[in-house]
Specification:
Blueprint (H helix, E strand, L loop, with lengths): L1 H19 L7 H15 L4 H21 L6 H18 L19 H35 L3 H37 L1
Length: about 190
């Protein structure tokens, strides 16, 4: 998990360099994704549909990240690019057409629970992300030694089983809390 986190944070830090040197082409996907997410939030979705969307998106994306281990370099590249995209979104200004989604003023006394919730969500999602990518990296390294269909099946299915037993339950808790925070902010 350490290599995954290292590559993620290397990508995150690289986002600051991309901003500094105005490498606009790197911002194309994160900017597009941010606008799509904000457009969806602008519809004021219900708590259940927002929770399901967050849960299904995160669970599916992270499972695919783990499965990228069949491409040998896939999980290593995804760890870096995920950090880069998160970093680029972090540096991105909210487009003016979505400024109405920003809370005008934070209610008194809400800061401590919000900070705890944000930390819990980030820690949980980062844990599942790094765990799944570690499974993908170990798959990639083992397949690099013996890439045969039988080796792929023997190595892949136990990893899918481990991910499905651990990842979705944690991501569901995170999605519930994340959706609640978003709804409170809207």
């Amino acid at each position: 998990m350490g290599l995954t986190l290292f590559l993620f944070f290397l990508g995150f830090i690289s986002a600051a360099l991309a901003e500094k040197y105005s490498l606009g082409f790197l911002r194309t996907f994160p900017r597009w994704f941010l606008k799509k997410a904000l457009s969806y939030l602008n519809t004021r979705p219900g708590l259940l549909s927002l929770t399901l969307l967050i849960f299904l998106f995160n669970s599916t994306a992270i499972l695919l990240y783990m499965l990228s281990g069949i491409l040998i370099f896939g999980p290593f590249l995804i760890a870096f690019l995920s950090g880069l995209n998160v970093g680029l979104i972090f540096w991105e200004d909210v487009p003016i057409e979505f400024e109405n989604l920003l809370p005008a003023k934070e209610p008194e006394g809400s800061r401590a629970p919000s900070l705890f919730s944000v930390f819990f969500i980030a820690a949980t999602e980062l844990f599942v992300f790094s765990f799944a990518l570690s499974l993908g990296m170990s798959l990639a390294l083992l397949l690099a030694q013996n890439y045969t269909p039988s080796a792929l099946v023997d190595l892949l299915f136990p990893r899918i089983k481990v991910y499905l037993s651990l990842g979705p339950p944690f991501l569901l808790l995170s999605a519930i809390l994340e959706a609640r925070l978003i709804k409170e902010a809207l």
